[in-house]
C-alpha cells in the first residue's frame, strides 16, 4: 500500500477556551456559543452539528450572556456593552454601552421587541429592538445589589430578576418591583456568604424556577411570591438553567459537572396533580457546567472543561440510532495548522500569536510501527504576536515558506520570511482592496495570495517585493452573502475553488479571473476540499460525511464519484461524528486521496473496490495478519489508520513523509482550572 | 429686745462665726454628747458674701488646675518634638555635605542664569527646576505613559474578581486537575498510578525538588561513612 515516514508532532500547545454562554435559536436550528476569550461560534444543529462560523475574540470582551432575536445575535458582557453581530461578515456590527457597569444577563421578550439587560448597578435596562439598531428605552426600578440573572414571562408583562439573596419580580410596563422573594442561604459555613441566584426561568403559568449558589433549585409561585418547593441537588453551585420550549422539562447545570433534569409530571395517570419531579442526571463534564440549552430533542451543555456536549433525550429520539448517540465537540472544525510542503515548516495559529516551527530530521530506517532516532529536533523559528486587541481570525503560510499572512477582523498583515524562514519583515505597502479576510490561501508556486472577502468574493494579490500588486476580485454570482470558509488553489495555478457556509462551491479560472463553474449545491456544508494536481478533479467532503469528486474540465461528477454515490458509503463511515478537516493527494499515486478527521486519517484508493455494507471498514489490522495473496481479496479502497489520536493536521511533504500533528486530550485536561473536590469512597 | 437684736445680728451674719462654730461644736459634740439636742437651735446662717467668696475660691482653684495641666501637656509635647528633631537630624546627612550640595546647586543656577539671555522669571525658574531634575537622573531612562485604565476596565476587573472569588475563592472546596485525573486512574478499569508519575512532563518542579532532596540525602549518608 504505502510506507510513510511520519513526523509525529505534539508540540502544538493548543488550548481551547472555556464555554461561558450559549443560546439556541429554534427557528434557524443554530446554536451560538460564547467562549471566555470573547470568541463566538455558531453550530448548525441540522447539519450534523457542524461548526459553521467562528467569530474571533477580543481582549476585554468578556461575554456573559447571549440572546437570539429572530435571526439577529446579541451579546452582553462585563465590559458594560451590548454587541450585535454581523453573521455574514463574521464581525461585531456595533456596540451599545448600557452605562450600568458590567452586564450580567440579557433577555428578549417573546414578541422580540424589547431587550432587557441586568447590570451591576442594580438596574434592569430596557432597550427597544429596532430594525438596524437598539435604542435605550428606560430603566426599571433600581435595586440595591447586582442583577445576576433575569427572565421574561412569556406574556411580556413581568420580569423575574435574580439578585444576591433574593429574587425580584418587576412589572415590565410600570417598571415597579412588585414582589420580593427571599432565597435561603446555605447551611453551615455558607450561612455567612450571600447566596447568588445564578439563573432564573419564568414559566407561562407564573411559576418561577431559580437556581442558586447554595446548590438549590427552587420553585416559586410568581403571582403570590411564595416558595412552593426546594430541591437540593448539589453541594456546590447550580450555575445554569434551561427550560424546554413546551415547558415540560427543565435542566440545571452544576459546578460538579452534572446536569440534572426535572420534568413536569404527575404522580398518577390523570393530568391533574402535576409537579416538577427530578428525573435524570447526566455526568458528561469534569468541570463546572456554565451554559445550558434545552432543544426539543436534546440537552446541550458546556462549561469550564471547554467541551460542548449534546445529549439527546431518549424519550424524544429513537434508541440506538445515530441520532441518539451523545456528541462531544472538543476541537474546532477547521484547521489551525498550515504546513509548507516544500520547506518543511509548520505554522500554528493561536488566538493571540502565531508560531513557526521547522520539522526535525531523521535518517534511519525502521519497521512499520517503530520509531526512528531523531537526528535534529524540531525548532521554533518565530513567534509572532498580533498587534491590537482583536484575536487572529485566519492565517496562512506559503508552500515555499517565504510568505506569512494573517488577518483579524480589523487588520490584515503580510510578512516576508527570509534566510530559511528565520528572519521576518513586514510588507508595509498593501493594496487597499486587501481588507480583513475570513480565509487566506497562497498559490502553490507562492506567487499569489487569495483572501476571501465580503459577499463570498475573493481578492487576488500578486506577491512581489517591495509592493504587492492587486490583480483582481473574483466575484460569485449575485446574492451570495455568506462568508467563504474554504479556499483551495490547484497546483498548476489555473483553478481556485471556494466554498461558503451556504453550501455553495464556486470554481474560478485564474487565468481569466472569472467564474468557471458552480458545483451543484448539496444540502450539507462542505468541510474540506482540494483540487487534484494532475486530473483537476475537485474533491469535496461534506459535514454529513459524504464525498464528491467533480471534474473541473468536464464540469460534471466523475465516474468514481457516481459509483460511490450509487453504492453509498459504509455505515460506519457515515456514523463518524467528527468532520473531515483536510483533504490532500499523494504525488506518487494519483489514485490516492488522503482525508483526515479528529480520530483517524484515511487513504482512499480509487483503484480498489469500494467497501460494501457487509465488509469490515477498519480492516487494516486484519489485512496485516493475512498472507500476501489473500490481502488482495479482502482489501477495499478505504484504508483507515487510527494510530494517532486527536489529529489536528495530516499533511504530505514533498519528500513523501507524513506530518501528523496531534493534540492529546490529556494535555488539555491537565491545564484546566480547578474542579470541585469530590470525596470518593476508598480513596 | 436683745434677743431680737441678736436674731437680727444673726441674720446679718455677724454672729455667724460663733453660730457656725457652735454648729461644728455641736456636730462634734453630737457624736459624744447625744443628749444635746439641736432642735432648739436655729438653722445655720450662711451669708451671701461668704458663699460668693466660696464660689470664687473654688472657681479659681479649678482654673488653676486646668492651667497647670495645660502647661504640663505643653511641656510634654515640646520635649517630644525636640526628640524627633534630634532623630531627624541624625538621619539626614551631616551639615557639611548639605552645604556642599547647596552650593553646587546655587552655582549651577547662577551659571544658567548668566547663560540665558534673561527670559521671564517664570521660565528661568522652570529651567532651574528642570535642570535639577535632569541632573538627578543617572543612566538611561525613558518616560512612557502608563495605559490609563478606564472606569469600565476597573469595573470589569472587579466583576471578574467577584466571579472568581465565588467560584474559586475561599470556601469553594476545589481540588487540582492532577488529583482529579489521579482519582480517575485509581478507580478506572486499568488502575494506574497518579498522573504526575504517569506523565513525564507533569509536576516538573516537584520532581526537581525531589531529585535535589535525594542528592542531599545521599551526600549526607556518605559523609559519616567516609
From TrEMBL, chain A:
Superkingdom, natural source: Eukaryota
InterPro entries: UTP4, WD40/YVTN_repeat-like_dom_sf, WD40_repeat_dom_sf, WD40_rpt
GO BP field: maturation of SSU-rRNA from tricistronic rRNA transcript (SSU-rRNA, 5.8S rRNA, LSU-rRNA)
One GO CC term on file: 90S preribosome
Cross-referenced Pfam families: WD40 (PF00400)
MF annotations from Gene Ontology: RNA binding
Protein name: UTP4 small subunit processome component
Source organism of the structure: Gasterosteus aculeatus aculeatus
From TrEMBL, chain B:
InterPro entries: NOL7_C
Chain intervals with Basic and acidic residues compositional bias: 49-63, 102-114
GO cellular component terms given for this protein: nucleolus
Region Disordered: start-end pairs: 1-63, 102-128
Domain U3 small nucleolar RNA-associated protein NOL7 C-terminal: start-end pairs: 141-203
GO terms assigned for molecular function: RNA binding
Segments of skewed composition (Acidic residues): 37-48
Listed name of the protein: Nucleolar protein 7
Organism of this sequence: Gasterosteus aculeatus aculeatus
